[in-house]
């Protein structure tokens, strides 16, 4: 375990390295993200190291102030009362960090007596031992301190007769995590860490030890018709004793009141005081209608793990959300999800009859602080080529909810579209960790790591992607989107024969899936070096490609090997000319 975690932007890597060396000279164990192991997810390692560190040094710079990744780490450190701030270029700190003291190391060259450095060293010493004169050597055994009150909400098991109801039990688990996160006196394990235990037989005390939490909540959900049964048990992580347990049998219409009861029962069992504003925040729902809520959860599952490159799947998402907002016109989340699916129909499938803005703007009007709505707006702006505006919206979405899958995916896609591959990786990693069923984000990580020459990173992402696509295909063997991304994973893992077998099978099952064809072409060109095979797939794709997808192709590193090929250039030019003609007459 390292004593000090250093957070910084890439432009200040040399200063961060110098700071780390100076701290090691004082006897501290120091960790920076240049020590990421190849076999583990980026976001998981960051979360673990942040939790374990006794002091978090944030190196502020102009770039860091704009980085949602640095700001997220700084916010976590601030909440845990272990933030040490310094600036290396005198930049103005973003809110709320401008309300906390910050050491000035502008121009610092390693002088141990520099006033700014003394301020940093003294703060770290106080956090770690309370004695600036004698810091704890990194080789000394350090006792891991457990937060006084902290909890992990394990994913509630779906014990309904219908396994397809898992989206509902996952939704219940996520909402309880969100509710408890609003209790200021309680530290709650993030969803991405809690959901790593999904579907596994776990020993609660081992979970508590691994996540360094004092309590664990586990439970189950059975949904049948208009009835729901939820069991929940709050367990002491040290002793394994049950502090509270309850079984609820209710009408589905009572689901929100039931979630409130569970959250309040946990707060009471832990002998915490729920502040009035916290109680109000917990009771604030996106909708009060159980049917609308169920439709939204179902639509979101289809959007994330379904065959999203099939227009019929997108139309199903729109219908589900449409019914949800028909039931509850003020349901902002359903409006935002509808807008996201509509944008895919317009920009990826050329459906000019689709309005991609009305639903998104409706969501923002209903709830200006909804991260998913800003993420959907960022996606629209990106696809229209308005990258600066898209970046601002993605940053807003991340600021509102740094644990949002949609916000992290939007930020990653904006970076990728601008050719900022290295900048996209942390957001794709975070999104992949936040949604353990999503296969698109690890597939994008394969592309990013391959473009940067990181073979180990690409193989790790490929293993994650393949495992997830196989789960999706077990549910729906005709899911061309999953096959399209799974093929890339197989190729990276060296399974060339299986790769070609999947391609042949997928083209028979889902021959009209354009994006699947594009992904196959990426795999053939980049991984298998089959230029003719890639061009054969790209011909039909480019003959129908939309403007948004063509712009993506311009920056996709998977296309780099083809760009000098005359056939590719001719097909690309023909696509450009066709789109220009269509736009001129539109």
Protein described:
This protein has 586 residues and is α/β, with parallel strands linked by helices. 57% of the residues lie in helices and 10% in strands. The strands form two sheets. Strands 6, 7, 8, 9, 10 and 11 form a six-stranded mixed beta sheet that branches. Helix 1 links the parallel strand 1 (4-7) and strand 2 (30-31). Helix 6 packs across helix 9 (255-269), helix 14 (358-366) runs antiparallel to helix 15 and helix 23 (514-526) packs antiparallel against helix 24. The protein is globular.
Quick summary:
This protein has 586 residues and is of the alpha/beta class.
DSSP strand (E) fraction?
5-15%
Radius of gyration: 25 Å
SS class: alpha/beta
Count of alpha and pi helical runs: 26
| Gross geometry | globular
Helix percent reads 55-70%
Please report the distance between the alpha carbons of the first and last residues.
61 Å
Average pLDDT over all residues: 84
E-strand count: 11
Low-confidence stretches: 130-147
| Major beta sheet summary | 6 strands, mixed
Question: What keywords describe this structure?
Answer:
586 residues; 10% strand; five-stranded parallel sheet; 26 helices; globular; alpha/beta; six-stranded mixed sheet
Fold topology:
Layout: E1 4-7, H1 13-25, E2 30-31, H2 42-52, E3 55-60, H3 62-66, H4 68-79, E4 83-87, E5 103-104, H5 115-128, E6 150-153, E7 157-158, H6 166-180, E8 187-188, H7 191-194, H8 204-211, E9 215-224, E10 227-236, E11 242-251, H9 255-269, H10 276-283, H11 290-305, H12 311-327, H13 332-349, H14 358-366, H15 371-383, H16 387-400, H17 405-417, H18 421-434, H19 440-451, H20 455-475, H21 480-492, H22 496-509, H23 514-526, H24 531-544, H25 547-555, H26 566-585
Parallel strand pairs: 1-2, 1-3, 3-4, 4-5, 6-8, 6-9, 7-9
Antiparallel strand pairs: 9-10, 10-11
């Amino acid at each position: 375990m390292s004593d000090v975690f250093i957070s910084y932007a890439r432009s200040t890597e040399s200063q961060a390295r110098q700071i780390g060396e100076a701290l090691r000279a004082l006897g501290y164990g120091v960790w920076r993200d240049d020590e990421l192991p190849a076999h583990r997810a980026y976001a998981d390692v960051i979360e673990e190291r942040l939790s374990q560190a006794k002091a978090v040094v944030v190196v502020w710079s102009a770039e860091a102030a704009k980085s949602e990744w640095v700001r997220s780490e700084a916010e976590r450190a601030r909440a845990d009362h272990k933030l040490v701030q310094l600036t290396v270029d005198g930049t103005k700190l973003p809110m709320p960090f401008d309300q906390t003291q910050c050491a000035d190391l502008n121009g610092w060259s390693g002088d141990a007596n520099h006033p700014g450095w003394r301020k940093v060293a003294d703060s770290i010493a106080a956090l770690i031992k309370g004695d600036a004169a004698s810091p704890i050597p990194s080789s000394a055994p350090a006792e891991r301190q457990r937060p006084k009150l902290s909890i992990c909400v394990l994913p509630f098991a779906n014990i309904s007769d219908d396994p397809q109801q898992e989206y509902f039990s996952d939704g219940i688990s996520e909402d309880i995590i969100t509710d408890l996160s609003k209790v200021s006196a309680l530290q709650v394990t993030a969803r991405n860490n809690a959901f790593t235990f999904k579907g596994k037989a776990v020993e609660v005390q081992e979970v508590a030890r691994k996540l360094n939490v004092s309590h664990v909540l586990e439970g189950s959900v059975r949904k049948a018709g208009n009835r729901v049964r939820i069991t929940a048990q709050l367990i002491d992580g040290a002793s394994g004793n049950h502090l509270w347990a309850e079984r609820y049998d209710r009408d589905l219409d009572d689901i929100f009141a039931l979630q409130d009861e569970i959250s309040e029962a946990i707060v009471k069992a832990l002998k915490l005081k729920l502040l009035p504003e916290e109680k109000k925040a917990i009771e604030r729902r996106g909708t009060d209608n159980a049917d609308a809520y169920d439709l939204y959860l179902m639509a979101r599952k289809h959007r994330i793990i379904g065959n999203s490159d099939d227009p019929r799947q997108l139309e199903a998402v729109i219908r589900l959300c449409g019914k949800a907002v028909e039931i509850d016109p003020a349901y902002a989340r359903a409006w935002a999800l509808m807008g996201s699916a509509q944008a895919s129909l317009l920009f990826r499938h050329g459906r000019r009859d689709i309005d991609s803005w009305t639903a998104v703007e409706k969501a923002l009007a209903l709830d200006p602080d909804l991260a998913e709505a800003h993420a959907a707006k960022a996606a629209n702006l990106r696809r229209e080529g308005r990258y600066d505006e898209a970046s601002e919206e993605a940053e807003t979405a991340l600021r509102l909810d740094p644990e949002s899958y949609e916000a992290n995916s939007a930020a990653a896609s904006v970076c990728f579209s601008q050719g900022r591959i290295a900048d996209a990786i942390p957001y794709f990693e975070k999104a992949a960790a936040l949604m353990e069923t999503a296969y698109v984000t690890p597939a994008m990580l394969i592309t990013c790591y391959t473009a940067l020459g990181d073979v180990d990173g690409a193989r790790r992402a490929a293993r994650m992607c393949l495992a997830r696509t196989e789960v999706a295909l077990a549910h729906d063997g005709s899911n061309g989107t999953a096959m399209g991304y799974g093929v890339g994973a197989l190729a990276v893992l060296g399974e060339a024969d299986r790769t070609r077998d999947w391609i042949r099978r997928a083209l028979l099952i889902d021959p009209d899936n354009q994006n699947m064809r594009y992904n196959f072409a990426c795999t053939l060109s980049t991984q298998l070096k089959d230029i003719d095979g890639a061009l054969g797939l790209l011909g039909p794709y480019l003959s129908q490609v939309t403007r948004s997808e063509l712009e993506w192709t311009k920056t996709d590193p998977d296309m780099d090997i083809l760009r000098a090929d005359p056939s590719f250039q001719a097909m690309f030019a023909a696509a450009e000319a066709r789109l220009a003609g269509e736009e001129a007459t539109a």
